[in-house]
Design brief:
The complex is a heterodimer of chains A (about 170) and B (about 250). With about 170 residues, chain A is an alpha/beta fold. Chain A has three helices and nine strands. Chain A is about 20% helix and about 30% strand. Chain A has a four-stranded mixed β-sheet with strand order 6-9-8-7. Chain B has about 250 residues and is mainly α. Chain B has a single domain, classed as Ferritin, core subunit, four-helix bundle (Ferritin, Up-down Bundle). Classes of the chains: A alpha/beta (about 170), B mainly alpha (about 250).
């Protein structure tokens, strides 16, 4: 447990690495690239943390849960107050996801999003590798899946369905 | 910047998204395929999220009421959605064609808005256009598949297109602030949007082997942007606000 005066922004970042995406429990919000800024300051003897985050999809229903999970985890570190706000300036794109996060995602059974660089194109939805057998002989079954960020695919090689995190 | 003009723009976009989102959600559980059930439910969730984000801008930047109040406590007359989005879901052919016509317009509108001089909207537009691309891809793929399917599916898609087109042109009804929006660089305008849209959908419709319906100006269904709605909006609002009305302002 940290004492108050030693709490740094780096400490908050490490704590945030333990806060998982409620829809993808193997990835933290930091892995996802959803945390855009962490600021710590002391005001009138009160230690405050200010965290900005950007949602993956505008209408993501897990946003409220994530905000609360961040608040709870950071508050527990010993802050007097924690503010979690939505970053309006940084739009989340799947390119913000860290390379190691994409590996974890694939191991979890969800095909990670391809890098878009500029814009999403139909080609990015072809040649997606099956997370079960590794074949790229797969096809898009539906652009929409069990959550807003996932699409449904089928692998011709192992003949199994799987989910893909959409490049966006 | 002209606040009233911006508010008008946010409302008409937000109301379109909220109402079509509600309509899309009506397919939940009754879609013709499991994947289509999921598609319409997902698009509904996206749309309602977009409406919320637009109302939020009005709330935060223009000092308007909070998003829930804007969404659930206005009268039918105060809604600025176009009549296309109000129509009942009908048969699947109509819902698909409406989704095709509406989402192409929506995508182009957001693409234009990424250059808006009103920064909060430009920022949101950058984010939202990526989501709507998936909606458009879905619409295009089903329009093509069904238009080239059987004789019946082709005929149904053509009939739905003929029926929906006069309503679709109503998307581009101008408000009294149209000139201000263009002059201040907030939005490039409905006329420019309509031209880009026509070019885009004509290409997809033709490639699908369907015929673009010709619509006389006198047949275009206007009114929605000025608060004149079809008979279908009032019952929809009644249903949508049923829970809120039992206890306005309740905290969940």
């Amino acid at each position: 447990m940290h004492t108050l005066h030693t709490l740094t922004e780096a400490d908050v970042w490490s704590t945030l690495e333990t806060v998982k995406d409620p829809e993808i429990p193997v990835l933290s919000l930091v892995d996802m690239g959803m945390i855009t800024k962490v600021l710590c300051r002391t005001m009138q003897g009160q230690k405050l943390a200010h965290i900005t985050m950007t949602p993956t999809f505008v209408g993501c229903p897990a946003l409220g849960v994530m905000k609360k999970d961040i608040y709870d985890a950071v508050k527990k570190m010993g802050f007097d107050d924690v503010e979690v706000v939505i970053d309006m300036e940084t739009a989340w794109t799947s390119d913000r996801m860290k390379p190691e996060a994409k590996l974890k995602l694939e191991k979890f059974g969800i095909a990670p999003p391809a890098m878009m660089e500029e814009d999403m194109t139909a080609e990015l939805l072809e040649k997606v590798r099956c997370p079960h057998c590794g074949s790229t002989d797969t096809t898009l079954r539906s652009s929409f899946g069990s959550t807003l960020c996932r699409a449904i695919r089928f692998c011709y090689s192992c003949r199994q369905g799987f989910e893909q995190f959409k490049p966006i | 910047m002209n606040k009233e003009a911006i508010k008008e723009l946010l409302y008409k976009m937000g109301d379109d998204a909220l109402i079509i989102g509600h309509r899309n959600s009506e397919w939940t559980g009754i879609g013709p395929l499991l994947e289509e059930d999921l598609a319409f439910a997902s698009m509904a969730q996206d749309k309602v999220g977009h409406a919320q984000a637009l109302y939020q801008i009005s709330h935060e930047v223009l000092g308007d009421k909070d998003p829930d109040t804007i969404a659930f406590q206005r009268t039918e007359k105060e809604f600025k959605c176009c009549q296309l989005v109000e129509l009942p879901i009908g048969e699947y052919d109509f819902s698909l064609v409406r989704h095709f016509l509406f989402d192409h317009a929506e995508l182009i509108r957001y693409e234009m808005l990424t250059a808006s001089s009103f920064k909060p909207l430009a920022q949101l537009a950058k984010k939202v256009k990526g989501e709507i691309k998936y909606h458009v891809m879905h619409a295009d793929s089903f329009l093509k598949q069904l238009a080239k399917g059987t004789e019946e599916s082709h005929a149904r898609m053509q009939a739905a297109l003929n029926f929906a087109m006069p309503f679709a042109y109503g998307i581009f009804e101008k408000s009294e602030y149209e000139d201000v929006l263009i002059k201040e660089g907030i939005f490039g305008g409905e006329e420019m949007l309509r031209e880009k849209w026509l070019e885009k959908i004509s290409a997809v419709v033709t490639a699908a082997g369907l015929t673009m319906p010709q619509v006389a100006d006198s047949k275009i269904v206007y009114g929605g942007r000025k608060g004149y709605h079809s008979k279908f909006l009032e019952p929809l609002l009644d249903e949508m606000t049923e829970v809120t009305r039992t206890d306005p302002g309740a905290e969940w």
